[in-house]
Design a protein that fits this description.
122 residues, alpha+beta, 2 helices
Length: 122
């Protein structure tokens, strides 16, 4: 988990393509595999990790579809409200520093949970 201490979440919009690098937590909950990215409250689940990854990509696609309908000022406000700030000299790159002191998320009880970096593009 040490490599995540200085990790910066990023969100980028370029020519209608949105990419994000987000912290996520994953593990088993009952009989399902779950992946949860708390920044935008995205989740995916399935019988296997692959199914969960496919579902979180679909969740991200749905989020991007909504996000791209916003005006420029609404997009900026949304990202600022979620802790992102504009990178200097780059008008559509946003980043968010994330440091979890306790090493776990609250109200998410997963067996053998692990933290990872998740790259999503839509």
């Amino acid at each position: 988990m040490e490599e995540l201490i200085d990790f910066t979440e990023t969100f980028r919009v370029k020519k209608g393509v949105v990419s994000a690098r987000l912290l996520s937590v994953s593990g088993k909950e009952d009989d399902s595999f779950v992946i949860f990215a708390p920044t935008f409250n995205l989740s995916g689940y399935g019988n296997t990790r692959g199914e969960a990854e496919e579902m979180i990509k679909e969740s991200f696609d749905d989020f991007v579809h909504y996000f791209l309908t916003l005006t420029s000022s609404e997009k900026e406000l949304y990202l600022f409200q979620h802790g992102f700030s504009k990178e200097k000299f780059k008008s559509k790159n946003f980043s968010k520093a994330y440091i979890d002191e306790n090493g776990e998320l609250q109200n998410l009880k997963l067996e053998n949970q692990s933290y990872e970096l998740t790259n999503l593009v839509a």
